[in-house]
Amino acid sequence: MIIPKESRLTDEQLAEVNSIVEAYHCKVQPIVGHHRTIYAVLGEERETIMVNRILGLDYIDRFDAVDSPFKLMAIQSELAHHQITIGKVIVGQMPTIIAGHCTIDPKNPNYFLESAHAVKEAGATALRGGVWKPRTMPYSFQGDDSSMKILIEAREQTGLPVDTEVMDEYQLQIAVEAGVDILQVGARNALNYSLLKKIGEMTADKPIKVLLKRSIGMGPVNEFIAAAEYIAAAGNPDVMFCPRGTQPTMDGYRNYPDESITPLLKEKSWAPVIVDPSHSVGRAKYVPSASLAAMAYGADGVIVETHSNPKLGIGDDPKQSLTPDVLKKLIEDIHAIWEIRKRYKVTKAQLV
Ligand code: PEP
Ligand code: MN
Fold it and tell me: Which one of 39, 228, 286, 311 has the fewest beta carbons within 10 angstroms of its own beta carbon?
């Protein structure tokens, strides 16, 4: 934004300003006020040489660049009204609940199919199921390509959109070819910029959404938004933020619960926030209250590990998974909080 010393630029001055910004593929848009006119610069207005040349003109007072470095994910961006649809839900218009196994057990496909029907019955919007898993120990079960068939079979049987994590290009290729609806980027890969770019490129122009977890060590909110910007800039703006707990841990919980960053994300970005309380607190008994807290903080939904018989699960399921009957109650309470929240609603228009 260019602010002249006088109340407006003369025609000659405006022509000179125009010739400078055009050399940097920008345009000037006068914003005519009652007392003075200011001039918005459309395009990459933070180009240093251009800014310095404008500031060098003796009739210019200031040049204020939009302070958000995010062209696509920022709440001021042209995508501010972009909507993401998952199955029957426009995210943000009603609670979005993604539920299902941490890990699909390829030896027992029926467990996953049974849980898929149960989470649908409980009211879930989409089904999660880990085909490949990032495991701390290299000897632990790492997932299996064959689980993709089970995931897709569950989608066919239930009609629920499906979510799975991809950790590399090989898995990405398989998941995109299978038409997975939501690609999860895990906490370990949220700062893997080459993977983020590849995901953006390979899902551009496809109806595939990306659920971007918050990296375990991610600090500033901007670092999280920048990671999402990588995916959007590479071609796919359908990105949702997923706080899932950070380090250091809080004594007793698996990670440090971070659902409270939701309002901060929402102040800076238009993108939906789907909180993962399962990996945050790490125990099924704490998951309902952590989910409700996330909703109270303004989340658009939650992703919760759920298994029809957690004891028979693998990966995180025995310790973290809710049973479908608890999920059902939780979804009812999430809807109740959704209604209560309307009493305090800050609209997007107020934020922009
Ligand atoms: C998961 O969702 O099962 C998972 C491994 O998540 P995170 O990347 O948050 O650890
Ligand atoms: Mn898990």
Answer: 311
